[in-house]
Structures are given as C-alpha cells and as structure tokens.
Design brief:
It contains eleven helices and 18 strands. The protein has 393 residues and is of the alpha/beta class. The protein folds into three domains: 192 residues, FAD/NAD(P)-binding domain (3-Layer(bba) Sandwich), CATH 3.50.50; 112 residues, 2-Layer Sandwich (D-Amino Acid Oxidase, Chain A, domain 2); 46 residues, no CATH class. Helix 1 links the parallel strand 1 and strand 2. Bound molecules: flavin-adenine dinucleotide.
C-alpha cells in the first residue's frame, strides 16, 4: 500500500471491483480497500443475475462463476396458483458469488489496481476543504492515504457518502430486510427460479427459491421495512421453509438490507463518487443490485480516470457519470419504483385474481410486461392506483 493514489475505492464488492478495474484500465493509479478478511465473503445475496446483464457488463461469462443456469421463472400467488412466465430460453444464472467477487477483484488487480483486505476505511480526509483521501485501519495501524478521487462502493451500510455530507438516509418503508438460507437436500427443479408472493409469505416483498444445483438452493425472502416490525423476517422465513422444505439442511443463514428506492439525489461531489448499493442503485422492484452496481462501477471508474488525466476532479467534471447512469438504469429504476408502489397496494385477494386472469391468457404471451398490463386492465381498482402513482399512463 502506497501513501498516495489517484483513485481510492472503498469496498471490494462487484461495484467497487468494477470501478477499480476500469479506473486502472484508464491509466490511473488505484487502490481498493476491503474491510473483510477476504473478498467475496460473507455472501449476503441470492446470487441471481440475468444472462444478458452479466454478458453486457463483463463481456464474458466465466464458467467457474456459474452455480446454475436458469431457463424458467415461476410466480406463485398466495393461494398457490402458479404462473409460468414466458422467457426467452436462457434467463440467467445463479452465481457462486464467492468466486465471482474474488475474480472481479483479481481482474482489477491484474489491470494494475492495488487490492488491500482487512482494511477498514474509518473516515475521509479533506485537503483545502476538498476530499483528499481516507484514513484506513489496517493490521492494527491507522494510516492516511491520499487520493484525488474517492469512490464509495461500501454497500448498503455505506458511510462514505454520509462522511462527505451527502443525504443518504432511506425511509424504513424503502429498505427491505432480507434473510436467506442455503438449503441442501431439497426437491427442486434446478433450472427454475420461483418467486412467492403474499402478505403471509413476505409482506411488501417476496420469497425466492434460487437453485444452486440439482438439490440445493438459496431460499430467502425480503420484507419491506413498513412491515418488518410486526413479525421478524427470519420468522417469516422459518415458516416458509417449514412449509416448503421441512427436511432441507441449512448450510448458511444470512441477513441484509436492500435499498428498494430511487438513486440517491446526489452521488457525486468534488473528488467523490458513489456506486452500487452505496448510491442506492438496486432495481427497486426485484432487489437486484449486482449488475446495476457493476454498470455504475464501470462508468464511474472510467470517468474518474479521465478526470484525473485532465487534472480536474471537480463535481462538474464528474457529473457526466450521473447522466450516464440515469440513462442506462437510473430512469428505469425510477419507473420500477413507481410500479412497485402500485404493486404494494395489492392484497392477497388481488394477487390471486391477477394470477387467475393471467393464467387465462395464451401461455406464449405470459411475459412480465404482459402480466402487468393484464393485471391493470382486468382490475379497475389497480388502474386507479396506477393513475394515482403515475399521474397518467
Ligand atoms: C439476502 C440478499 C439477497 C440478494 N439477492 C440478490 C440477487 O439475487 N441478485 C442481485 O442482483 N442482487 C441481490 N442482492 C443485492 C446485492 O447483493 C447487492 O446489490 C450487491 O452486492 C451490491 O454490490 P456493491 O458492490 O454495491 O456492495 P457490496 O456487495 O455490499 O460490497 C460492499 C463492500 O464494501 C465493504 N465495506 C463496507 N464498508 C467498508 C469500509 N468502511 N471500508 C472498507 N470496506 C468496506 C463491505 O465489506 C463489502 O465487501 C441481494 C441482497 C441481499 C441482502
């Protein structure tokens, strides 16, 4: 570890590694600090990604990243009605995130970035009023490391933005609490991911079964913060698992928050950029943040390297990152957030009715878009909700 770098990345998740990789490829000197002992551990994720997204952002899919290919998606209504969603064949993957995150960090290292684990960034420092680096606790010592740009990729519990004075607060209703078990020795179709809905299953969210092999899956659920006080999310999960997989063998139990909300209003400042969960870039409908974080990391890293080269790391010079992000995914996230607000109004009876209506349409036409449109058209109550949320559609 040196005393000075062009770019300091805080956090070694997918967003941070992509930022470090693309900043290093852009010719900047880069360090990425990760507080945990090892990149990729612990895994607090169901590990699902779309195939198209992964290919787009990495340019290649290494076979060792893939635990399971997914070809089918099922939605299950509260009354257990199953809706088979039409997909284009190869939907996506359930990853081995341990290996995936590790590999991304290694790629950043191969591109020239220094990667330091057991390095807890404990604050940012200012030089002449501007962000000028970080303090980092590493192997029993606190060091000051100078940098022209700090990229906060420190995940859902991000502190970098807050230290820099940005508004990073999330309302409880917009924060899903997720809990998940990896279960072995269970009967599943390994190529199908299943999402379960209902107020008794996961209020304000959904439960998932993401296969990791022929008889193993990540089984979890997310409960909106608006509900998680009444019954603990882990209790919902215990009930779900007892009902669906009573004989499953629990290999892991993890919990974590997912910000299901729009991108933070401000994600850049002089010498500062936020990426990934730290910037609230998760898709608010699905809770998926791996690909989005990587897209943002790639954009931020490349632009940061250019800014350093041009000798201007002002907020104005870094702002095109915000524009790129909003065009690529941010606007879509805003739409998803509004749709989610409509979906949140559905009670179990609505969800059951929607599932029955959707199952009456041609199976070949049951795409996600068509399911939503059918739900709206056949259920006037939902149109009213949609108009309220969208103003006009
Ligand atoms: C239960 C659960 C299931 C999920 N399932 C999916 C899914 O199936 N698909 C999907 O796309 N998304 C899923 N997500 C969301 C996804 O995990 C995140 O969106 C994604 O990991 C975000 O990547 P990131 O790099 O922004 O943050 P993270 O992956 O959280 O990485 C942040 C890193 O920063 C480090 N760090 C934090 N503070 C500091 C500090 N001060 N100093 C140094 N290092 C620090 C952390 O240790 C961590 O390694 C799930 C989330 C949860 C909780």
């Amino acid at each position: 570890m040196k005393d000075t770098y062009d770019i300091i990345v805080v956090g070694g998740g997918p967003a941070g590694s992509m930022a470090a990789l693309h900043a290093a490829r852009g010719g900047a000197s880069v360090v990425m600090f990760e507080k945990d002992r090892e990149i990729g551990i612990p895994v607090r994720c169901a590990e699902g990604t779309s195939r198209a997204g992964l290919e787009l952002v990495t340019g290649q899919v290494r076979p060792e990243w893939i635990a399971q290919e997914i070809t089918r998606v099922q939605l299950v209504a509260p009354d257990d009605t199953v809706v088979d969603v039409v997909t284009s064949g190869q939907v996506g993957y359930v990853l081995h995130r341990k290996l995936f995150d590790y590999d991304l960090a290694a790629m950043a290292g191969e591109a020239g970035a220094d990667v330091v684990t057991r390095a807890y960034v404990s604050g940012i420092i200012r030089t002449n009023g501007r962000i000028g680096g970080v303090t980092v606790d590493h192997l029993g010592e606190t060091k000051t490391v100078h940098g022209k740009i700090v990229i906060g990729a420190d995940g859902v519990e991000s502190r970098v933005g807050r230290w820099a004075g940005l508004k990073t607060r999330t309302l409880p209703k917009d924060m899903d609490t997720c809990v998940q078990m990896t279960l072995a020795d269970i009967d599943i179709d390994p190529e199908t991911i299943i999402l379960y809905f209902g107020l008794n299953v996961a209020p304000g969210g959904y439960a998932w079964v993401f296969p990791k092999g022929p008889r193993m899956a990540n089984v979890g659920l997310g409960v909106s913060g608006a509900y998680s006080k009444e019954i603990k999310p882990v209790e919902y999960l215990r009930r779900f698992v007892n009902r669906k997989f009573p004989d499953g063998k629990m290999l892991t139990l993890v919990a974590g928050g997912v910000p299901c909300v729009n991108t933070l209003e401000t994600i850049t400042d002089d010498g500062l950029m936020l990426v990934g969960d730290a910037a609230h870039q998760v898709n608010p409908m699905t809770g998926g943040g791996i690909i989005n974080g990587m897209i943002a990391g790639k954009m931020a890293g490349a632009l940061a390297a250019e800014a350093v080269k041009k000798g201007d790391v002002s907020d104005k010079r870094l702002k095109p990152y915000v524009k790129q992000w909003m065009k690529a995914e941010g606007r879509n996230n805003e739409l998803c957030y509004r749709i989610q607000q409509v979906v949140d109004k559905f009670d179990d009876a609505d969800l059951n009715k929607i599932a029955h209506t959707v199952n009456a349409i041609d199976p070949q036409k049951r795409t996600m878009g068509q399911i939503f449109r059918t739900a709206l058209l056949k259920h006037p109550k939902l149109i009213v909700e949609a108009l309220r949320v969208f103003g006009n559609i």
